[in-house]
Amino acid sequence: MSLRLDHLAFRYEAMDMIFDAVFPAGGFTAVIGPSGGGKSTLLNLVAGFETPLAGRVLIDDADVTALPPDRRPVSMIFQDNNVFAHLSVRQNVALGISPALRLEPAQAQRVEAALADVGLDGLAHRKPGELSGGERQRVAVARALVRDRPVLLLDEPFAALGPALRRDMLDLLRAKQQARGLTVVMVTHQPEDAIHAASHTAYLEAGRIVALRPTADLFAATDVPGLAAYLGDWRNTVL
Prior knowledge:
The chain has 239 residues and is of the alpha/beta class. It contains 9 helices and 10 strands. 35% of the residues lie in helices and 25% in strands.
């Protein structure tokens, strides 16, 4: 599904934000930029957790701006993964279908399939405290997959993981995105995550999307205001 932000306005403290962009349908877009620039706010506006002052959120050309989060075709994964310590892995994933954990047989099968997709089918009975950080993030990914929403938002989901595990999780996410044709938007403070996984990357600064281009083109660009200062010496050592 396509995702379009049409002059979406928001104000936080002294910052006026206006987001105007089209994210590629079925693409994987990373969002990078300085801290405090509005990256998380952008995701919250798309998901419905924040209310814009003006403008529209359009998903497949349908205006969802007035819809509550549970009625939007969107799932979101946060940095802290939001797993519940008192529930098993299976139950945490099942919450994506039924908050009351009352599943029809076909729904229970979807949960098992999602657990298998992320490599947790052998750990379904465990509690989150018995899992590694990467495994807990896989629970969050499985819950998002079982919701079967076409737009997936991620707010620094793998920031607490080491480089190798973070890359493994990005590979898993990209594989699921491609297999299902999901439209993914992921905020990250790690430019290498964008290079590794994202087909497109947006540079966001001071409440504005300054540029949104194919990832290789953006990182090679010399005409994007603020990008060179944000990347610093990193671009010289990586690209």
